[in-house]
């Protein structure tokens, strides 16, 4: 049983690498959004031409990125959404809602101080984790039945 | 052509009332989450019994609220999501993602200072509005073909 | 927002009547399986002719009952499944699984001594209740935002 | 025509091994839940942290297991559900209902003394079998057209 | 629980009238194909212009009739398909397959001499009936829980 | 059997009125896009604010109109698409493709000189008509079984 | 673009072999029902035990065969349904209806004397063919763009 | 993350080759309609027999072509639709609508003079491009995160 896992959300720390490294040897395919922040912001105008209005500059980029993120979520069995300490991160919550409506297995990765603010998101998830390691342990258990320790 | 409209998001101002008042005379049915903040937070434990751990206190409430919010979104033709000036509002973005995945017509109501943070959410919407009045004008136009002025 | 609620499971006590009575005044339509035990067991052969083999006797009846139960579940917004103290009640768990796969809001009604045996079923539900009254309070809150007390 | 078969239900006897052994040489991929009973019960708390309340202990585990069981059922062409002689086995009946709602081909494996209690479940199945061998013979016939003997 | 029932198949006897008459007082809406044989055969060319080639004459009519039959089947909770004694009746079997794929509750009405020829169709049905009266009794039981006699 | 009919396409002649008038007395609900050409072109900027770039001016309007057209098509049983003598009319063909993918019954209304250019669109339709009157006759036949003359 | 093609219907002539032979070199995977008539009739009782009543004998077999035929149709891009000169062949028409409802591309293979009786089935198809060779030529054209001759 | 891309629309220039060449080294599978204009027009009658009436000549061909185009669109993650300078190109707009209704990521390739006529089509797309090169750059960015230059 191979698993396809999409890693959504925060792009400022190396949590994706920690999960991918930890999951080595497991039959998992990982996908992610483009995590190069500047490229992600400017992809629309870089390819399709400049926009004087920042609103449409952002729109063009968000739509190009959506080609990748929708494919990533639609192909996934499991969607992991990481909420970091800073920023609004509405795209992370949007991805979580999108994945939930498609019936994907949702794993949230966040610290306890956000528990109350994320309670609706958490309630749609099958696991709320506190570290990349816990995500890895879930994937390992799901695929092999082995628990840590 | 009657419209079913779900009003999601910020619960601290009277934007819902403004839209509902403005839309009087139009063939629209409005639904909303429970907007009594205390009731919404405590509904789970008030009905199903107290929890010593705040995490499960929140979970019980979020799940009971989900009965209403999922029904509201699934029944809707149009989902309006309002992002206010404050708070994380991840449940609003979650609802937007949920609605988008179900193919609902999405209208976002937010101020320009959030444009960049909401660019992925906006890109999934059919309109980005700045006031309840603009939402009303869209509903009026969609139902009657009449423009303001 | 009217709610359509299907009441599945145990047929030996008056829990359905308690819920229906308690919900008077709320905009709820209730549906149930046929709760006349003898009729439910024999409907197949009574209408379509006797079977010497009990296996096919049961099959004919279960298929006729399925016309009603599938319609009831498919039309429902909320499926309440009651597990009683006795019997295998596999049809109740089957209904819960069927409703879960269709994305219905699931409410389980059962006593704590069955918590462990029902953990997978409970984990698919939005509420685990201990009395018909709690079910009524959830429906009231979902429809009106009012909490008990 | 390769077949993907999910083996749900009773975990106390070696029926899964009998089917997998018997089906050697056939183009079948088998998946199952985690059948290590202790691991299955404790996976939630072992990975995500202890819970003082057994109800939430069970919930955490059931949700982690659901990542695997839902994937297993959703990927399957055929879902075999085995009901043993003992225990409530509500998760088995839940899986059967879930699979039926998704339109999977359902094969039930159970002894005749449970026929009446399982009549609704059986009525949703394409075959009711009495031994792992019969399941193997069905898979062989479906894939090769060859009958036993 | 109102039922929407589509009556498909044989158009040479009054079985539809018998069912509709028998079901008086029950909360059932009946729909049927056009049962005027000449109109059904010629509707395409009568409205859209003559065709010299009988193949396209038939095609035009079959497509116009499909507007009604697809709507009828898609709206139905229960599809009753009657196979008469004569003719190929492939459109009846086609409707049965169409309804089965949509997950409709299927009731077949046919005489025992066709049992073997209809075994695949019957196997997709929830009831195989021998008279319009049995169909009526099923509808009555499904809606009221009352058995005949 | 009431029918919901969406009238898409050309907005320069009174073909919609002819169909609606002709269908008086039939159980049909008609919906259409906004047919006020100026309003349809400018609705986006009139409500949401001017755009210096015509491309985004058009985009804003097209998205607001999509709220109505998608609702109209999704609610419809039958989608009639009229291609006039002039203009590109790509939105009409887009609506036809959208309706076809949703499995709607499609009726095309066009003159023979466009037959070859419309052959892929026609091939997805259940009727190709030459006059509003033929559309009316189809609706009448579908609802009443009566043919003209 | 590989194609998955299901060959349904008549089992008394070698039309399947003709198509499979003719399609050699094309990127097509073919699937079929079990075409050993005796095995197909008796598979249920041969595996699951004898039935004194021919009705249930047939039912058991039809349900086992359905595991294969449903998988075959659901996996297919193209469903070819062959109607022979003799017999009722209601299972062929049932398969055609099932495939049509799932949106499969349908090719019918039949002789002109059945045109009128098959008009509803033909009207749901993308091609009506008269020989296995024509089916092969369609598959070749669809995959390579090459026409015969 | 491999991408499946369908290239729909104009067949008179080498835009498909430009995209396919430009995308070399990327993990993309491309599919297209048959672009041999004569073969595409005549495939129906060439395989299935001549038709005296051009309308049915066209119909037969359009239906055979639909086997390929529907498969191509349904399998695609991304549908690129090219509108050329000339002709009605209603099949291109039809494909765009079909793809939009299936939730495919849509990329339009057209010149600015068609912007107004294509505004509804563009509004359903995630990118409006002016050259095959821009399409290639989008695919490269989506798959690798790399921007041009």
Automatic annotation (TrEMBL), chains A, B, C, D, E, F, G, H:
Domain of life of the organism encoding this protein: Bacteria
Pfam families named in the record: Nuc_deoxyri_tr3
Protein name: YtoQ family protein
């Amino acid at each position: 049983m191979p698993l396809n896992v999409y890693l959504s959300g925060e792009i400022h720390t190396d949590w994706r690498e920690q999960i991918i490294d930890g999951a080595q040897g497991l039959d998992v395919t990982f996908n992610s959004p483009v995590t190069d922040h500047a490229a992600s912001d400017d992809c629309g105008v870089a390819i399709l031409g400049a926009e004087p209005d920042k609103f449409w500059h952002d729109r063009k980029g968000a739509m190009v990125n959506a080609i990748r993120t929708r494919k990533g979520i639609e192909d996934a069995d499991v969607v992991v959404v990481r909420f970091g300490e800073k920023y609004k991160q509405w795209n992370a919550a949007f991805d979580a809602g999108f994945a939930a409506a498609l019936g994907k297995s949702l794993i949230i990765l966040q610290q306890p101080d956000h528990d109350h603010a994320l309670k609706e998101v958490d309630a749609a998830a099958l696991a709320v984790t506190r570290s990349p390691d816990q995500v890895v342990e879930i994937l390992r258990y799901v695929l092999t039945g082995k628990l840590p320790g």
